[in-house]
User: Fold this.
Amino acid sequence: ATELAELALGPLDSERDLTQVTAGLGFARSAADRLSAVATEQAARDRATNRLHDAYSDLRSRLASDFDPHLDTREGLFLCFAKLNGNPVGAIRLAGALEEQVSRRREMLSVEERDIIEQHLMSEVGSHLGERIHAAWTHVHRMNEQLAQHPTRSGVLLKLAWEVHPDAGAGAGEALKLLRREVGLLTAPERELLGNFLAGRVRAAREEGDAVDTVQNMADALDYRRWHHFTVMKRTDGKWERFTSRTQGHGSGGEQAKLAHLPLFAATAGYYATASAIAPRLLMLDEAFAGIDDDQRADCLGMLVELDLDVVLTNFNEWGCYPQVPAIAIYHLERVEGQKGVAALRYVWDGRVRREHDPFFESLEPEPEGLLDPEITGS
Assistant:
């Protein structure tokens, strides 16, 4: 009647009449055996009581307005009861009623979600997602064309693979293919498959995210970037394999260093792809191209020029004066032992010739004769 036995031992056989002597004694012996490992000393009972009151306080804060939970401490026991449709019920019946309500509301939400998806996601949002995914595929293809033009000396190539993320949800692979097509031209089964995928993403975001911030949850649910992940692929002797720390370790040190740089260049260019046309596209490298020979350095810098990145490099002996580089400013830093400060000697490379170009020293040069003639400059 109090649900105490069921709370302690789990579901009971409803067909057994425990008021009968045989059934009652059998149950008592079974309960004693199953609970024999439970600590019963005073300290353990005190800890259990504290946990119970903490859990009860949490329950009150969540359900007090609707179900009015309360503790019954008669007979030296602590039993939780609540009001369900005006009638007192135990914890087990309350949990069952709550589970039923949650299930019913989820069914109602599923119907509402389906209407929203059909009216908005499948048309407006679906078309927008399709455009973004198609643009991303186009950008990945363009990056791979760039990478294909910059093999290592031994002919090793890299490419980017933009793949479906394992956690993207059921049917993600097929749904993402459908999003790249015109939503209005999909067949009924295709629309159902795509609708199920989008509904699943919305439902997952609601259950995993902050229920208060509905807008943010929806934005997270429809963020197509979370449905994909990048993998770098490496081709050696005509065979493609994943580019990892293990597969990178083949070839010379210079080749390994170049292969480590190229995906970074592509990723940086991709990051800036949606920036304003006048925004700087900054990439800074310390000890740039260490271990890479001159020809391969020239090739790397050529790729940076093709990607239109604004590059700042530091290197002990790198000038960057290669035919692939149309222009570069160079500062050679010198420090004299015992003297304060650092001297900065400026040079420029115009694609053909490197020359010293220091505006400070140029400003100290005497003006051409006649420039200060009063008849020319006036009073």
In short: The chain has a mean pLDDT of 83.
